[in-house]
Design goal:
Elements lengths: L1 H19 L9 E3 L5 E2 L8 E2 L2 E8 L12 E10 L5 E3 L4 E5 L4 E2 L15 E3 L4 E9 L4 E7 L5 E6 L2
Parallel strand pairs: 1-12
Antiparallel strand pairs: 2-3, 4-5, 5-10, 6-9, 7-8, 7-11, 11-12
């Protein structure tokens, strides 16, 4: 009887935690860098427009005067707001996943390089361009962008 109660409570806790996850069921569409932001859903069906378009290419960073040395792996990103609402962009909203599946955040590399993407708010149709870097030598594969609540808003493969 006691094991049944513990199992029921554990199951209820798991369901409650899943229900509290703001990102559950809201997976952004994966974009292929350099491709059109409109994805066809099949023949005869309407195309779906991606709200945030990311175009990502590998890049080499120029070290800033604040650089403490060390390797940086970088991408150049163009963020386009394709919604009618303002879009917040912040360097801390990005992460780079490498070819080994390791996620790298830019917080350790901030100020180490020039051309970092600015913290800004984009109006409908506006673009922001800048660099996102992570510490260390790795090959960037995917760039992900979160929203201010830190749930994933967009992702794109690195060209």
């Amino acid at each position: 009887m006691r094991i049944t109660t513990i199992a029921a409570l554990t199951g209820a806790a798991v369901l409650a935690l899943a229900a509290c996850d703001p990102a559950a069921g809201t997976t952004p569409e994966t974009q292929t860098s350099g491709k059109s932001s409109v994805h066809a859903t099949g023949k005869g069906k309407a195309a779906k427009r991606v709200p945030i378009k990311l175009v990502v290419k590998r890049a080499t960073a120029r070290k800033s005067v604040l650089s403490q040395g060390g390797a940086l792996s970088c991408v150049k990103v163009t963020v386009t707001n394709q919604t009618k609402k303002p879009l917040e962009v912040n360097p801390l909203y990005f992460s780079i996943t490498d070819t080994k599946g390791v996620k790298h955040t830019p917080d350790d590399a901030m100020g180490e390089y020039e051309g970092e993407i600015d913290a800004t708010t984009l109006a409908a149709g506006e673009k922001a361009v800048g660099m996102v870097c992570g510490k260390g030598h790795f090959t960037p594969k995917v760039l992900a962008m979160t929203n201010p609540l830190f749930s994933e808003a967009a992702r794109a493969e690195v060209a």
